[in-house]
């Protein structure tokens, strides 16, 4: 089964603003006849890779197969084996407590990377929205995703896990 990964309003705004900002800097770079646009050159060297990396790592959709949960991304998709899943549940932003960013991109094409929460500890966040959150836990790692229909996603994965356990 396949579940969409739509961007929430906040991510859409941040993503569009960053892209527009990069385009403005690019236009400034092209139209600069004095060849004194060092600051815009440096900003482009930062913004363009951030945009490309964020797009490559952002989830396009989530899929459930008989043996795995897939986080499909343009580059380096993630596969979580069903046999490794210990617990899977829907949660809210409030359930995370206070979170700190460890290594991530927050807002550009979603909320991506490694975070630490006061409630659940260290986790990987591959979300495009701050709603419809699903926490997947294994013995060694935790993932937070945001499929379009979180309750249906949890129900279908739990059916597979329970059938496999019998």
Automatic annotation (TrEMBL):
This is Bacterial Pleckstrin homology domain-containing protein. Keywords: Membrane, Transmembrane, Transmembrane helix. It holds the Pfam family bPH_5. Residues 62-159 form the Bacterial Pleckstrin homology domain. InterPro entries: Bacterial_PH-related. The keyword Membrane applies. The chain crosses the membrane at residues 12-31, 37-57. The keyword Membrane applies.
């Amino acid at each position: 089964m396949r579940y969409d990964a739509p961007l929430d309003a906040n991510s859409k705004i941040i993503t569009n603003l960053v892209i527009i900002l990069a385009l403005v800097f690019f236009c400034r770079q092209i139209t600069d006849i004095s060849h004194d646009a060092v600051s815009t050159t440096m900003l482009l060297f930062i913004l363009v890779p951030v945009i490309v990396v964020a797009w490559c790592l952002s989830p396009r959709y989530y899929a459930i197969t008989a043996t795995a949960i897939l986080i499909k991304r343009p580059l380096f998709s993630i596969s979580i084996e069903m046999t490794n899943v210990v617990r899977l549940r829907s949660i809210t932003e409030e359930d995370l407590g206070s979170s700190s960013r460890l290594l991530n991109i927050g807002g550009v094409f979603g909320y991506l990377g490694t975070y630490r929460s006061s409630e659940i500890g260290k986790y990987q966040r591959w979300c495009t929205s701050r709603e419809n959150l699903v926490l997947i836990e294994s013995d060694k790692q935790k993932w937070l995703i945001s499929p379009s229909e979180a309750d249906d996603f949890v129900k279908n994965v739990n059916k597979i896990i329970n059938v496999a356990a019998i």
